[in-house]
From TrEMBL:
Protein name: S1/P1 Nuclease
GO biological process terms, semicolon-separated: DNA catabolic process
CDD domains in the record: S1-P1_nuclease (cd11010)
Molecular function terms from GO: endonuclease activity; hydrolase activity, acting on ester bonds; metal ion binding; nucleic acid binding
Top-level taxonomic group: Bacteria
Pfam families: S1-P1_nuclease
Keywords: Disulfide bond, Endonuclease, Glycoprotein, Hydrolase, Metal-binding, Nuclease
Annotated coiled-coil segments of the chain: none
InterPro entries reported for this sequence: PLipase_C/P1_nuclease_dom_sf, S1/P1nuclease
């Protein structure tokens, strides 16, 4: 089963997605930067990471059908079948959305308009997949029906993770990105030496800790406990997004057998 999320339940909120976009922009090669500038019509990468959510306000009903692109709902990890994806298949979840975007952007047969669309969606979906509750449980709609309190403010668990934890740091998205970015080449290599299927498993393995809410009343201790995970996932999301884009657009970038799968 797939869960339905409300308009205000986008993974990592606006700042989270922009943090990922900013980190990604810092890790793009010059060749990749030039290539995606042509597809973004002058917009910067951090700006377009929120486009997929903003378009959900469109009166065009097809955007509601794309809500399912933002998450994958799994009861157990055995429910995840990455090898069943095919290029011509309809996008059914965040994983197949990322695969579809990579396929379209990598294909010389894709039209310019298609590439523009899927590039914007890709920048968002990579962020979505790095938020553990977007690999959540169908029964609680990825934490949307679980009520908690954060410094006595009532909200659902999804909102806490996509927005409030990040906002608790009182940083702009550029400040946050600068603080958590890394130039450690070994760490960067480890991050990009993975595939989207690995990211699904990674987020799935994190979610039990997220779901462990005890009495559901959180404050400073919750920030202390979970902020390292939030920062780590945002950093990974940004660097991995850059890894995908570099592998697609820069022929000089080598992708190892365990790296991002492009073709």
């Amino acid at each position: 089963m797939l869960l339905a999320v409300s308009n205000n339940a986008a993974a990592y909120g606006q700042n989270g997605h922009r943090i990922i976009g900013q980190i990604a922009e810092w890790h793009l090669t010059p060749v990749t930067k030039q290539a995606i500038e042509k597809l973004l019509s002058g917009d910067h990468l951090p700006e377009v990471t929120t486009w997929a959510d903003e378009m959900r306000s469109s009166p065009d009903k097809k955007w509601w059908s794309r809500t399912k692109w933002h998450y994958i709902s799994l009861n157990t990890i055995d429910d995840f079948k990455p090898d069943t994806y095919k290029f011509e298949d309809e996008v059914k979840d965040v994983y197949t959305g990322i695969c579809k975007a990579i396929d379209v952007l990598s294909s010389p047969k894709s039209k310019q308009q298609e590439k523009e669309f899927y590039l914007r969606f890709l920048t968002h979906l990579v962020g979505d997949l790095h938020m553990p509750l977007h690999v959540g449980r169908a029964e609680d709609k990825g934490g949307n029906t679980i009520q908690v309190e954060f410094f006595r403010e009532k909200m659902n668990l999804h909102t806490l993770w996509d927005t409030k934890l990040i906002e608790s740091q009182n940083l702009s998205f550029t400040e946050f990105a600068r603080f958590i970015n890394t130039t450690d080449t070994k760490l960067v290599s480890n991050y990009v030496s993975t595939q989207p299927r690995d990211w699904v498993v990674e987020s799935f393995n994190l979610r039990d800790d997220v779901y462990d809410i005890k009495d559901g009343e959180f404050s400073y201790d919750y920030i202390y406990r979970h902020m390292p995970t939030v920062k780590d996932q945002l950093r990974k999301g940004g660097i991995r997004l850059a890894g995908i884009l570099n592998a697609i657009f820069d022929p000089n970038v080598k992708v190892g057998k365990n790296g991002v799968k492009i073709k």
